[in-house]
Queue: 2 jobs
Job 1
Amino acid sequence: MKFMLLIHQGTTPTPLDPEAWATLPEEEQQAVYDAYKSINVTPGVTPGNGLQPPETATTVRVHDGKTITTDGPFVDTKEALNGYLIYEADDLDAAIELAARIPAARLGGAIEVRPIMEW
């Protein structure tokens, strides 16, 4: 079964925000790098890509045949989607176990585990 793990950063510092990243001790910064390196080589994991900040998003809807775009995400949220990965696992428990290893899960964010529909 395939799962998408959606990484919601929340207030988690990332290297993309040097000021926030500097608030983490060097050991914690290295632990984050090491965790992602380990996750990315886990059998069944297809690493995804990080996403640009939410303010770079465009939300698209179609209403009465007319395309409507809105700058930024549809809702203001602290847990903006920052990245994803795909994990082929035996079951949900295995996917949850992997999600718990993602640093954002313990540093103020959350990981959404969602089964992928296979047609």
Note: The chain has one domain: 2-115.
Job 2
Amino acid sequence: MTHETESVLQQVAAERDRQDQKWGGPAHDDRHTTADMVQLIEDYAGWARTMAGMQSFDKAKRRLVQVAALAVAAAEIIERAEKRNLLPSRSA
């Protein structure tokens, strides 16, 4: 793993902590559907694209870190639902 990767992953972890502190963690997150989370991710990614297009790379990077943290939150929601057997079973 490169130094840059480690640095960015640390930033994503810090952003997840910030989100949890602001919104209340799993108790808040689990009220959202996967579709809700994907919409948020798309919105933040769009803002990152806009910022990059404006040559505002610091703001684009900030949004991308938020995108990554939101993707982690979405995966965590699914993980918790799987552990509690709350997801519909797949038919073969």
Note: The CA atoms of residues 29 and 65 lie 18 Å apart.
